[in-house]
Amino acid sequence: MLMRASRGPRTLQAVGPLWRGAAFLVAAGVLAPVLALLWLALGPGAQGFAHWQSLFAHVLPQATLNTAMLLAGVGLLVLIVGTGCAWLVTACDFPGRRVLHWALLLPLAMPTYIVAFAYLDLLHPIGPVQGAIRWLLGYDSPRQFRLPDLRSMGGAVFVLGFVLYPYVYMTARAMFMSQPAHLMEAARMLGENRRGAFFRVALPLARPALAVGLSLALLETLNDIGASEFLGVQTLTVAVYTTWITRSDLAGAAQIACAMLAMVIALVWLERNGRRHQRYGSAQRMRALQPRPLRGAMAWAATAAASLPVLIGFVAPALYLVWESAKRLRQGGGISHGLLASLANTIALAAGVTAAAVAAGLLVAWAARNPGGQGGAARRGRWPARVATLGYAVPGTVLAIGLLTPALAFDAALATAFGWQGLPLMGAGVVLVVACTIRFLAMPIGSIEAGLARIPPAIEQAARLLGETALGALRRVHLPLLQPSIAAGALLVFVDAMKELPATLLLRPANFDTLATWLYAEAARGTYEEGAIAALLIVAAGLLPVMLLARSQLAAAHAADPLPVSSATP
Q1: In whole angstroms, what is the distance from residue 114 CA to residue 121 CA?
Q2: φ, ψ for residue 293 (rounded to 5)?
Q3: What residues contact 309, with CB distance under 8 A and at least 6 apart?
Q4: 8 A C-beta contact, residue 550 and residue 102
Q5: CA gap 476, 551 in Å, rounded
Q6: 3 state DSSP class of 466
Q7: 275 and 214 in contact (C-beta within 8 Å)?
Q8: What are the pLDDT tens digits along the chain (570 aa)?
Q9: How many CA atoms lie within 13 A of 175 on its CB side?
Q10: Model-level pTM?
Q11: What is the DSSP code (8-state) at residue 45?
């Protein structure tokens, strides 16, 4: 037994470099598309200074301005809606509060392009909403009265803002729930009214959380292609897609993608800068803020205000999709073979991405633990995990353009070496799986790292003293304990891979459609009925992680608010 126990440390040293080396390879794979993009945009194949000059003269100014305006409008809207709703359900008690505190998360199940798809029909000049308004006002024709066109910058801000506000709502609510009540009470005793206490105490303390939520919402806005194109806004993402697909100009698409990459760096800097002073310590647990009961018209006004984002961002589009899907089935149209094939392709793609992302995430998270490591060794173990999570910040179009050149070169080498025809990797969808894996790798890494942090080191030490190798300890001890964390990360990856549109549009094999690309094509043709069925399937899948998130929010709310609301003092 003593001999077996003594082999433990030597085995750890022998296996450790292998894990770290594999984790470095994963991190290098995440960085490779970005480096390839820079080489494609700035290297010898970039067609020189004249090409850049043409882009700066004709493409980049308008696309950059549109993107900046869209980011500013969406950012302002998600801050107002997300922060306002978070404070309302935290600081006030009103009818429906306990339902709304998790229902406000439901728009997360709606991809932005699906909401745009729904509202284009709902708010059409001869659609149901404008028809009802004209009937109420006594008008007969769209020529007499019509709402502003949704295909505009304002329409894009409206759609994206009411879908993405939950990112700010989640982080702001968590921060408001953790703020000690005595800070607000002290502000009131010093003469501040409730509004002043909110703006001068609660809101400044929530700044780090608001920065995180805002940066996530803006990154999703930058990644969007479907909603922007449906609504007629020529953003940088749309410019990358049209430059490559319509003009077959890969170098030009890479150069535009570099401008997007600069915006990503600016947004990441915003998030890091906002979190600089996020650490607040306390020697003991403080009493949480108790909600103030509202009465009469004020209470119902609060209910209406908190319900409006849910109605706009989830209920109205969901009801539209259900209605259009039911109409399609009632008319005997059924579900076409093409849509069923798209569903099968979507499940296969999501399953492949999930398997690859979970395997890579487990490898990177395990290497980042670096048990027993100190100083430089510990930092080297954590560095790949930090780099590997950067893929989530890179828009799908940027990843796709960055992967195209190395993938085409590798395909050509394989075809030459083995005598294969065509593009073996691109044609088999391997490149698309790699792109989605890089994009969503942060989810399993974060989930598995959180699970590993809850496992006491003594458990592994006991296994090693009993003669287990590092790999044996992972297989027989950690993996059984990590099953909930792995399952949560896998679910998030699976659902996001089902919804992914930008990378899928650029990297999918020929004659390969997913539900997202099927919906994109249906919307482009203006055929809404079967597109609604595809959208409904995507939303149904997206509800699963939102339900888990709502469950955790509900548990946190009960823990922070253990007393009956009626007993709270005003």
Answers
A1: 11
A2: -65, 135
A3: 81, 85, 104, 107, 162, 165
A4: yes
A5: 30
A6: coil
A7: no
A8: 344 444 444 333 334 677 778 888 998 989 988 888 888 887 665 555 666 677 777 788 898 999 999 999 999 999 999 999 999 998 889 999 889 988 999 998 889 989 998 898 888 888 888 888 888 888 888 888 888 888 899 999 999 999 999 999 988 888 888 777 777 777 777 777 778 778 888 888 888 888 888 988 998 999 888 899 889 899 988 888 888 877 777 778 888 888 888 888 888 777 777 666 555 444 445 666 788 888 989 999 999 999 999 999 999 999 988 988 888 787 766 678 888 899 999 999 999 999 999 999 998 888 887 544 555 555 555 788 888 888 888 888 888 888 888 888 888 888 888 878 778 888 888 999 999 999 999 889 888 888 888 888 788 778 778 877 777 778 888 888 888 888 888 888 998 899 898 899 889 988 899 999 988 888 777 666 677 888 888 888 888 788 877 776 666 555 555 434 333 333
A9: 28
A10: 0.82
A11: G
Distance CA 501, CA 227 (A): 11
Q: 185: which 2 tokens?
A: 């009470």
Residue 180 CB partners (closer than 8 Å, separation 6+): 282, 286, 287, 288, 289
8 A C-beta contact, residue 148 and residue 130: no
34 Cβ neighbours under 8 A, 6+ residues apart = 261, 394, 398, 402
Q: How far apart are CA 327 and CA 533, in angstroms?
A: 10
Query: Position 504: which residue type?
Result: T
The one-letter amino acid code at 417 reads: A
Task: Specify whether the CB–CB gap between 152 and 232 falls below 8 A.
Answer: yes
> Rounded to an integer, what distance in angstroms lies between the CA atom of residue 233 and that of residue 212?
26
d(CA 552, CA 538): 23
Judged by DSSP in three states, 93 sits in strand
In which residue are the tokens 């001890």 written?
477
* C-alpha distances out from residue 415 to 404, 412, 422, Å: 16, 5, 7
Distances (CA, A) of 21 to 8, 67, 212, 313: 20, 39, 31, 45
Q: Which residues of 172-205 are buried (b: 16+ CB within 10 A; e: fewer)?
A: bbbbbbbbbeeebeebeeeebeeeebbeebbbeb
Q: Which amino acid is at 125?
A: P
From the CB of residue 145, how many other CB atoms can be counted at a distance below 10 Å? 14
Nearest to 267 by CA among 313, 226, 223: 223
CB atoms inside a 10 Å sphere around CB 518: 25
* Selection from 446, 449, 414, 453 nearest residue 430 by Cα: 414
Cβ distance 371 to 460 under 8 Å? yes
Tokens at residue 41, please?
């945009």
**Contact (CB, 8 A) for 520 and 505:** yes
CB of 107 within 8 A of CB of 166?
Answer: yes
Q: What are residue 371's phi and psi, to 5 degrees?
A: -60, 125
* Closest residue by Cα to residue 155 from 193, 119, 128: 119
